[in-house]
Design brief:
Aldehyde Dehydrogenase, Chain A, domain 2; 15 helices; seven-stranded mixed β-sheet; 41% helix; alpha/beta; 480 residues; binds NADPH dihydro-nicotinamide-adenine-dinucleotide phosphate; Aldehyde Dehydrogenase, Chain A, domain 1; single chain
Length: 480
Amino acid sequence: MEKIYNYINGALVEPVSAQYIDNYMPAEGRVYSLIPDSDKRDVANAVTAAQAAFESWSGMTVEHRAAILQRVADLIDRDLDALALAESIDNGKPVSLAKVVDIPRASSNMRFYASGAIHFASETHITGKEAVNYTLRAPVGVAGCISPWNLPLYLFTWKIAPALAAGCTVVAKPSEITPMTAFLFSKLCIEAGLPAGVLNIVHGVGPKAGQAIVEHPDIPAISFTGGTVTGRSIAATAAPMFKKLSLELGGKNPNIIFADCDWEQALATSLQSSFSNQGEICLCGSRIFVEKPIYEKFVADFVKRTKELTVGDPLDSNTRIGSLVSQAHMNKVLSYIDLARQEGGAILTGGKRVIIPGRCESGYFVEPTVITGLDHQCRTNQEEIFGPVVTIMPFETEEEVLRYANSTPYGLSATIWTENLKRAHRVAAGVKSGIIWVNCWLFRDLRTPFGGMKQSGVGREGGWEALRFFTEAKNVCIKL
Ligand code: NDP
């Protein structure tokens, strides 16, 4: 069976314990490879390598660093099909989605930050005729990057690209549930000539390998994407050590549809924002609020289109909904559908596990599920389900829908559908979310700040924000 190895000091190595964990292929529900069960000894080796590499990597010209990162991006593009296939096998997502979203976005993360670091500028302030202040930025040192399983290579590179571009060396841990593309990525880094120790990838479980990264005294900055509960525990460990922290956490995002929307766009995009990647995207709009005059028609059309989505083998190009990532996650999603029933919800379509005959018959497939009849305050509408499950609720006024939208502890993203420009601005300002899309969803411009409010996160990634995070600012004041 194929073994995945850690990438430490430029080499692919076994974990110190020589122990491995099973890696499942969720579409078939069977083990297909083995992951290093790394612990604090592997993390310590990775930190030693990263510290040793720091001086030369941070001292290299930014153009030289950028050229190496561009080479990594070129190799991702070259291997796009193989990486998309690996991502689909590891995660259960349709390979067609991985080909157009996950892998191209991973490559553009590398390219954007390679070029971004070249164009990064620091500020100067002229204090009248008396002084000049300028901001001197230097990489923070060894950065710790921890990423989740839903968009494996995309979110992994989203963190390590700015860290490396800023001149940090990195100790990173992908999710133990989807480690394969990070492993393939480590091979590409070797091929691209990334110097030894600059990037170190330690595979293993969160509470052991992840926790060891967060606790390590020589890692001054932690960039984490994952669940809110894990984020809270990471903050509890890192804050007393005065580490820099960037936390991108869970969401329960509102999708607000006004009666004057562009009907076809709102309907088609809402289908995507509900069920893309099996609803396993932190930015999915899992609570749909529809203005009363169009509510009945929207529900009918949305349910009809949901029934047309093909749930099936992720490797089949017609599949729109693949497998959930694990049996445990499938059981969690199904338990939330049961909860919705207990809370009085009506399941208009979906609601069950799907058995796909053939190679996928033991896979973790769940029907796309649409629920109505629930109050905005019930648990189904307050807690993150992270699966192909949406609720639809009616509203009458802007004030009312803002109250509903803002009623959860989360504040990651929101989508607004209206052709009324003034209303779009008003509602965008009123929703307490860090990312607002008007008449679109998941549209990305890498220069913009990305992140959540409330329990959806602290700090911002994207654009200059990420380069600022991975550098430390010093102000130099020169008296004239
Ligand atoms: P988790 O919080 O379970 O895990 C995220 C990462 O943290 C994994 O690599 C995990 O390792 C690791 N980890 C777990 N425990 C610890 C610990 N004590 N110390 C350090 N690291 C640890 O999230 P999921 O992987 O389940 O991802 C889904 C969640 O991520 C959802 O809530 C989703 O909303 C959120 N998310 C947020 C995004 C955003 O941008 N705001 C984007 C994408 C997802 P392991 O898997 O090996 O246990």
